Request: fold
Amino acid sequence: MLEQELIGKRFGRLTVVERTDIKQCNSGEAGNMMYRCVCDCGKERLASGTDLKRGRAVSCGCANADVVKEMKRRLHLGDVEHSNVYQLMRKTSKNNKSGRKGVFWNSRKKGWGVTIGVNGEKKTIGLYSRLSDAIAVREEAEEKYHKPLIEEARMKVDEEKQE
Ligand SMILES: [Zn+2]
Reply:
């Protein structure tokens, strides 16, 4: 993404208004300019292009309270289906015989299907004849796909706390 293209874009609750002449200090990345952003709550803040693009700047800090609340309530691997921390909340499913999110009985194929949501997309992991196998595979998939997302979200919470 070109720097100019950031202007007018939304990142979480922030809308980028303009580029400033201020360089981010201690970023370790040369020429990382700060952008003036307006938060949904009306406050302004500066954020570097890199922080915006990497999802490290998502609000003026007001999202902090919400994120912390969400994370405390739902910081379990099985509940994370989306990489966006604001979309982590999702009701566990409808008609799920397995009792396990992402594990479903496939009556056509006569087996337990395993899926996992990553970045808002559903990935199909496989089909298993034994429920215990399907659950084990789902747990592995959670470790692989969701754990990094949770770590990222935790870091984000810590960063916003420091602001
Ligand atoms: Zn705000």
Summary: Residues 13, 39, 41, 43, 59-60, 62 surround zinc ion (CB under 6 Å). The first helix runs from residue 49 to 53.
